């Protein structure tokens, strides 16, 4: 597939070759790449930075019900450019009902407890998934925060969010 939307429609275990994809979020267990149409998580220990343009080779799989590059054979850094994020979808008031079959750029506002954001009146929490150490969640514990990032699957009790920005 030459674009991310093409990878999303592939069968699991299919070979993924993605050229010049932009890193839009970094987590402890990998990173998100996005283009104008779609985004996907890449599981890897390779070090990349937000804005990096990368060539990715690997295999497509599924994590938390969403398509992902679950086996990454190679990441080649081919440049860096400023990231332009799409408009955020505020899921705060609809957290309990939120579910998506693909990654979306979302924001949620609530009280930070460890790595979970609790929203008053909601039974689900927004779980900050594998945050990079640079977010220093301990310093924000108990604070009211706005988390912006990519939705990464939902269960009966939580919505996973790979953070891009956490505002106190």
Q: Can you put this structure into words, describing what you see?
A:
- The chain is mainly β and 168 residues long.
- Helix content is 5%, strand content 53%.
- It contains two helices and eleven strands, in the order αβββββββββαββ.
- The strands form two sheets. It has a five-stranded mixed barrel with strand order 1-2-3-5-4.
- The longest helix has 5 residues.
- The chain starts with a helix and ends with a strand.
- The model has no long low-confidence stretch (mean pLDDT 95).
Feature tags:
168 residues, 2 helices, mainly beta, five-stranded mixed barrel, globular
Task: Describe the structure in brief.
5% of the residues lie in helices and 53% in strands. The chain has 168 residues and is mainly beta. The strands form 2 sheets. It has a 5-stranded mixed beta barrel with strand order 1-2-3-5-4. It has a 5-stranded mixed barrel with strand order 7-8-9-11-10.
């Amino acid at each position: 597939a030459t674009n991310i939307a093409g990878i999303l429609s592939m069968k699991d275990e299919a070979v993924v070759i993605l050229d010049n994809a932009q890193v839009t979020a970094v987590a402890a267990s990998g990173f998100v790449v996005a283009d104008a149409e779609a985004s996907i998580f890449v599981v890897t220990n390779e070090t990349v930075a937000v804005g990096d343009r990368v060539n990715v080779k690997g295999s497509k799989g599924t994590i938390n019900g969403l398509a992902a590059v679950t086996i990454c054979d190679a990441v080649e850094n081919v440049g860096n450019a400023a990231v332009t994020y799409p408009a955020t979808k505020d899921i705060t008031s609809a957290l309990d009902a939120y579910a998506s079959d693909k990654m979306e750029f979302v924001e949620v506002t609530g009280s930070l407890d460890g790595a979970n954001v609790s929203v008053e009146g909601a039974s689900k929490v927004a779980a900050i998934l594998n945050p990079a150490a640079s977010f220093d969640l301990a310093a924000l514990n108990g604070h009211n925060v706005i988390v912006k990032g990519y939705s990464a699957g939902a269960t009966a009790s939580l919505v996973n969010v790979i953070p891009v920005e956490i505002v106190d």
